Amino acid sequence: MQNNRLAVHIWDLPTRLFHWALVVCIVGAFVSVKLGGLYMDWHVRFGCTALGLILFRLLWGIFGPRYARFAQFLRGPAAVAGYLKGGTAPAGHNPLGALSVVALLLVIGFQAASGLFTTDDIMTQGPLFGHVSEAFAGAMTSWHKLNEWVIIGLVALHLAAVAWYALVRRKRLVRAIITGKVDAKDVPAGTPPTQDGVAIWLRALLLGACVTGLVLWIRSLEVAADMSFS
């Protein structure tokens, strides 16, 4: 079978919604922490939502359709080297892009998880701050602040790569993650479309409901913290 279609459906709806929801959370968390004050409540909300999204994506990387699965796009060093030398990119994430995905999931996941234990020593703390020691909370707060710069760097690289693909390789990655469709010329001949539809959406809703329940349970553990650590 040849790719005689104008576009191939690669990205399922839950994967696309995850991507843009995470963008909103990252921007919202960054803006709210810079504004400070009462906006810190929103920072915590964005952080907890980001945690839920990362957990969902990890599960979706196992139970999602073809191109969302880690087993489909994670490749070893040889595949990355081959791609950098001009090898044909597979449908979905290319070997180099896959590393970017994993790196972003890890650093954003750490940021969201560490935020559960942090404090600004004024009026805001993470939901689990009152359940850990002063030393642990202090360490998490420090790493949380430092990791912000790692996220900024990775996001900048991600945006630069998207721009490079658009201007040099003429690949419209932003459009693809909005519509789910990739130009047929940008994928190997015979590439099958992803599974997408009611059954996939219901699976995503089930996983999303489980993750939401977990995050809400974590929020319910918040206690009035003694800021003096006495």
From TrEMBL:
> What Pfam families does the record tag this protein with?
Ni_hydr_CYTB
MF terms (GO), sorted A to Z: electron transfer activity; heme binding
Keyword vocabulary terms for this entry:
Cell membrane, Membrane, Transmembrane, Transmembrane helix
Q: What SUPFAM superfamilies does the database record attribute to this sequence?
A: Transmembrane di-heme cytochromes (SSF81342)
* Keyword Transmembrane attached: yes
Q: What is the lineage of its organism?
A: Bacteria, Pseudomonadati, Pseudomonadota, Betaproteobacteria, Burkholderiales
> What is the topology of this protein in the membrane according to its UniProt annotation?
Multi-pass membrane protein
- Any one cellular-component term (Gene Ontology): plasma membrane
**Where is the protein localized?**
Cell membrane
Q: Which source organism? A: Achromobacter agilis
Concerning InterPro entries, the annotation shows:
Cyt_b561_bac/Ni-Hgenase (IPR011577), Di-haem_cyt_TM (IPR016174), Hydrogenase_cytochrome (IPR051542)
Q: What is this protein called?
A: Cytochrome b561 bacterial/Ni-hydrogenase domain-containing protein
Locate the Cytochrome b561 bacterial/Ni-hydrogenase domain: which residues?
Answer: 11-180
**Which Gene Ontology BP annotations are present?**
respiratory electron transport chain
Q: Does the keyword Magnesium apply?
A: no
**Segments passing through the bilayer:** 17-35, 42-60, 96-117, 149-168, 200-218
The principal localisation class reads: membrane
